[in-house]
Amino acid sequence: MFEFLWKGVLRDRSRSLFPILIIAGGVFLTVLFSCWMNGVIAQMIFDNARFETGHVKIVSRAYRKNIDQRPYDLTFLENDKLLQIIRKQYPEMIWQQRIYFGGLVDVPDSIGATKMQGEFSAIALDLLQDEIENKLLNLNQALIAGKLPETEQEILMSSELAKNLGLSIGEEITLISSTMFSAMTIQNFKMSGVIKFGTQALDKTAILLDITAARDFLNMENTASEILGFLPKYRYHEEKLQKISAEFNRKFSQKEDEFSPIMIPLQEQANMRFILEQSKTNISLILFIFIFVMSLVLWNAGLRNGIRRYGEIGVRLALGETKAHIYLSMIWEAIIIGFFASLIGTALGLAISYYLQIHGVNISGLMKNVSMVMGSTMRAQVTAKSYMIGFVPGLFASVLGAVFSGIGIYRRQTAQLFKELEE
Amino acid sequence: MNLISIKNMQKDYPMGLNKFTALKNITTNFSTGEFTGIVGPSGSGKTTLLNIIGSLDEQTKGEVEVLGYQIKRLNNKQASRLRSKHIGFIFQTYNLLPVYTVFENVEFPLLLLKELTSTKRKKMVEDALEWLGLTEKRDSRPSQLSGGQAQRVAIARAIVKKPQLVLADEPTANLDAENSHHILRSMLKLNKELKTTFIFATHDEKVIRYLRRKITLFDGEIAHDEKKEGKIK
Question: What ipTM score was computed for the predicted complex, to two decimals?
Fold first, then answer.
């Protein structure tokens, strides 16, 4: 009997091919959309973390009060000791010191007079000691001309700033800023390379220099304005970060000492909690609507398929098949079709999502005037949830369609089904 | 011996707050080997009577006993069992399952009789196809058959399990004269050789000429019950 019914499913395209196409299509879109949205959020978190917030950030309590202004004059001193402690306390995490500061960049002419000037936002980081920052910021890929700094006097300049100032590789520039103690400071540097992150907010005015040079320049001996911490493999985990921050602050942060350190998780920086929650809510809502509509379509397809088969059901009843057997066979068909269709849809959705996770989509054309720290390559992200997010509704919608349409078999009198058959 | 016994049977259908009586005061018997027609104009209750005899429906009042089973007392499962084992149906519009071959359509009722082996099933289907002259069409799909051939497949499907009773509702309504006669001759042959009882619901003169017994329904009641003697033309 099973073989007989299976033959029917395979031969009747409106029972097999069309439902499979509809279900697989819906599941494929759900998986792809979900992975894409996962990727958008993950990319947004990663971009913000690597350039600005870290997964956690340690600053002085005083610095934190005006963190938007980057008040490096309010930073703590002797942070080498603090680094030793946190590296011991949280050995699995990656810790990097940074100084964010701004000022004027002055381009001299052949006799040393100002030829061009512009504003800069500098990120001082470890460019010479190890490769961590290089890898984190993907500097080799971001470098579009010249080379990475090899000495403390060499800097990297963002593409738009270099272009606006008319600078060539190897040219000398003068940075003008203020020290940690609010004195004016001026120093010459050499532009060793031009970088482009594809992040408009950085590409407009950024300068990258080694933190040792910046310490000399800003008179910030043995300190940094911010210490950024990252979870292993740079994987964001909200609850873990919350826990680590609470533990650190309980141990090391003192309310009465405004120069004692305080750890801030990513989600509590730069309005990120609101942005993340808003994004998650919006995505959940869109996904819910999407899955709901898809379920309706699939349910309707199942229902129509069931109703279309009332004629066949009438014959089978007349020939002596029981209502229960027909109903169960319809549900089994729906389970088998829903399973394979959901499998196909999920596999296709995951395959495309994996491709988009690796290769991404370049959206730089859409990002020209965006000041938010956001990469120009958007990627999908496949998570454990991605394997089920389309599969479950695909399977259930298909089965529910059969369940509801099959109820008609029970609600109608056998003779009524028979009459419909004759019409 | 009575195959079917009907006593004071009435069938009502609810119509809003009222009811519509489709059949009333029906009392009759059918014996083994009959070739009988229930005739009458449209709406006279022919199909309703056939449906009740076939356990597809049940009466409102009275008694209907088919092959020793009280129709009213049968639950869905028991009624299905009665149909699958003992009753064959032939429909006006053939109602073959379009995605299956002729062989598979004829085999289907046997699949419901779980006790048969596949070898036995195959033999029974081949015999049925041979009786109806359909052996060469065994692998064809219903869409590749003419109306007459499709109805012969429907007859093969109805008789393949060798039922005691075949109920045929307007079996020739969609066929031309030549095909109708061919079909009816096939049914007569089966009736004679297998002692299968045939009950038709029809108002087709071509069928009526073949009947040995004619029960005429009018407004839901039996108006005449005639038996023909002698050889059927």
Answer: 0.84
Kindly state whether B51 is in contact with chain A, defined as any CB-CB distance less than 8 angstroms: yes
Strands, DSSP E only, in B91-220? 165-169, 197-202, 213-218
In-domain check, residue A250 = no
pLDDT tens, position by position, A52-92: 888 999 998 888 888 888 888 888 777 788 888 888 888 89
| Domain limits for position A404 | 2-47+274-422
Counted across chains A and B, CB pairs separated by less than 8 A come out at 76
Angstrom distances, CA of residue B149 to CA of A7, A167, B140:
23, 91, 11
Highest mean pLDDT: which of A28-42, A225-239, A332-346? A332-346
B10-25 pLDDT, tens digit per residue, is 999 888 888 899 999 9
Q: Under an 8 A CB cutoff, do B112 and A321 touch?
A: yes
Last residue of a domain, one of A172, A196, A230: A230
For A11, name the nearest residue in chain B, comparing CA atoms only: B99
Residue B233 has what pLDDT?
45
Please tell me whether residues A89 and A43 are part of one structural domain. no
Question: Which ranges of A112-186 does DSSP label H, i.e. alpha helix?
Answer: 132-136, 139-142, 159-165
- Is A31's pLDDT higher than 70? yes
Considering A313-317, B68-72, B115-119, the range whose residues carry the highest mean pLDDT is B68-72
Structural domain harbouring B45: 33-58+76-227
> DSSP string spanning A197-211?
-S-HHHHTTEEEEEH
- Give yes or no: residues A23 and A151 share one domain: no
Q: B27 with B9: CB under 8 angstroms?
A: yes
Q: Residue B23: helix, strand or coil by DSSP? A: strand
CB contact under 8 A, B91 and A324: no
Does A255 fall in a domain?
A: no
Closest-CA residue of A relative to B106 is A319
Whether B11 is covered by a domain: the verdict is no
pLDDT of residue B30: 94
pLDDT given for residue A69 in this prediction: 83
HEC string for A306-362: HHHCHHHHHHHHHCCCCHHHHHHHHHHHHHHHHHHHHHHHHHHHHHHHHHHHHHCEE
Q: Are residues A326 and A343 in the same domain?
A: yes
CA atoms of A28 and A34, how far apart (whole Å): 10
The last residue of a domain, from among A172, A198, A230: A230
Non-local (6+) Cβ contacts of A82 within 8 A are A58, A76, A227, A252, A261
Number of domains in chain A: 2
Contact A192, A171 (CB under 8 A): no
What confidence tier does A418 reach under pLDDT thresholds 50, 70, 90? low
B77: contact with A, CB 8 A cutoff: yes
The model's pLDDT over A94-115, given as tens digits with 9 standing for 90+, comes to 998 899 999 999 998 888 788 8
State percent of chain A over pLDDT 90.
Answer: 23
Task: Give CA–CA dist A227/A243, Å, rounded.
Answer: 18
